[in-house]
Specification:
- The protein is α/β, with parallel strands linked by helices and 401 residues long.
- It folds into two domains: 8-37 and 295-399, Aspartate Aminotransferase, domain 1; 45-292, Aspartate Aminotransferase, domain 2.
- 41% of the residues lie in helices and 14% in strands.
- A seven-stranded mixed β-sheet has the order 2-8-7-6-5-3-4, sandwiched between helices. The chain has a three-stranded antiparallel β-sheet with strand order 9-12-11.
- Strand 6 (202-206), helix 8 and strand 7 form a beta-alpha-beta unit.
- Helix 4 (99-110) crosses helix 10 (261-274) and helix 12 runs parallel beside helix 14 (380-399).
């Protein structure tokens, strides 16, 4: 067996299942689950209709590069969304089966373990656990940059020494961030590009939450967009995007990567062997989804309505606030995050995710400790009820000696 498999930790939701063993939720309350970042808004009917209308494509083997129609639809969306005119759909865009599998497979393409040292893969902390697994199974070592509220959840780039940076081959960023919702600004990107230029590592920009934001006039800055604004090309930079959150189709498993043509050429070669071609019917439905924006604006409206209603309630008892973007509240807990989640389930039948499960201890700190991630994915009424239960629970804690 691959020895690197032994380095993988249980996924956060497996840890949550173990944490809840032996807990009997209060039967006076129905369950409200806000632990998993799974969109629950309705999938637009036109996407489902496009999927079923193209089932004839199941008779054909798809290519790893995807159809020209899909790549062109993605290129057109990138121009509308980011002002990226001139992105080459044949060399700078590659459809993938959701950003998750691509983020994992990308490390297997980029990491070179033959240089006489153990490569480093840098990521934010807390983080999406795929980054860690991808690093280990590529023969690299993850290096975590704590993102803390006292630093406005910024990456602590100064934590790495010159010798550390010389070993970095891949850096994952997530903007908007999971779980903090932090969006990198142009100055953040300028620092990352300067480091990439100096040390030669590739930047993988996970932007799967890019379309969940609260001000239609201020969409989050993207990595490729930042490169253009700084007068750069896409050297050593690849972005990852997805329809899952944008269009409420997590089961469609549809996204794309875009950026450095030389890097994507190697990634395409890897995927040709890996078997990463997208279902033809999914490709047809995806092209239609990328070409339509009204449903995305309505999706954002629903999230904004929930955040406007729920954030003040939760913030009245827990330290939290409106994120830059994404659909999570990242809230500090008055007791250990695991105990908070366990007792909240037992007393009020609300499920949230302990923040420590989303992070690792780095330089003596687990930046997820004493936080919980609250995913506002349920209907508005459920989110409001859950917020009121959380308020009652915290007030109950405050009354205890």
């Amino acid at each position: 067996m691959n020895p690197f498999l032994a380095k993988l930790q249980p996924y956060p939701f497996e840890k949550l299942r173990q944490l809840f063993q032996g807990v009997t939720p209060n039967p006076d309350y129905r369950e409200i689950k806000l632990s998993i970042g799974e969109p629950q808004h309705a999938t637009p009917a036109f996407i489902k209709e496009a999927l079923t209308a193209n089932l004839g494509g199941l008779a054909n083997y798809p290519t790893s590069q995807g159809t020209p129609a899909l790549r062109q639809a993605i290129a057109a969306w990138m121009e509308r969304r980011y002002g990226l005119a001139g992105v080459n759909p044949d060399t700078e865009i590659l459809p993938v089966n959701g950003s998750r599998e691509a983020l994992f497979a990308f490390a297997q393409t980029v990491i070179d373990p033959s240089r006489g040292y153990v490569p480093l893969v840098v990521s934010p902390n807390p983080f999406y656990q795929i980054y860690e697994g991808a690093a280990y199974l590529a023969g690299a070592e993850p290096y975590f940059l704590n993102t803390l509220p006292e630093n406005d959840f910024s990456l602590e780039l100064e934590a790495l020494s010159e010798a550390d940076w010389a070993r970095v081959q891949l850096l994952y960023v997530c903007s908007p961030g999971n779980p903090t919702g932090k969006v990198l600004d142009l100055e953040d990107w300028k620092k990352l590009f300067a480091l990439s230029d100096k040390y030669g590592f590739v930047i993988a920009s996970d932007e799967c939450y890019s379309e969940i934001y609260f001000d239609e006039a201020k969409p989050p800055l993207g990595g490729l967009q930042a490169a253009k604004q700084l007068g750069r090309g896409f050297e050593r930079l690849v972005m990852f995007s997805s329809l899952s959150k944008r269009s409420n189709v997590p089961g469609l498993r549809s996204g794309f990567v875009a950026g450095d043509a030389a890097v994507l050429k190697k990634f395409l070669l890897y995927r040709t062997y890996h078997g990463g071609a997208m279902n033809p019917a999914v490709q047809a439905a995806s092209a239609i989804a990328w070409n339509e924006e009204a449903h995305v604006r309505e999706n954002r409206r629903q999230y904004k309505e929930k955040f406007d209603a729920v954030t003040p309630i939760v913030a009245s008892v827990l330290q939290t606030g409106l994120p830059d973007a994404s659909f999570y509240l990242w809230a500090r807990t008055p007791i250990a995050d695991t105990e908070f989640a366990r007792r909240l389930l037992a007393d009020y039948n609300v499920v949230v995710l302990p923040g420590s499960y989303l992070a690792r201890e780095a330089r003596g700190v687990n930046p997820g400790e004493n936080f919980v991630r609250i995913a506002l994915v349920a209907p508005l009424a459920d989110c409001l009820e859950a917020a009121e239960r959380i308020r009652l629970f915290v007030q109950q804690l405050e009354q205890q000696p």
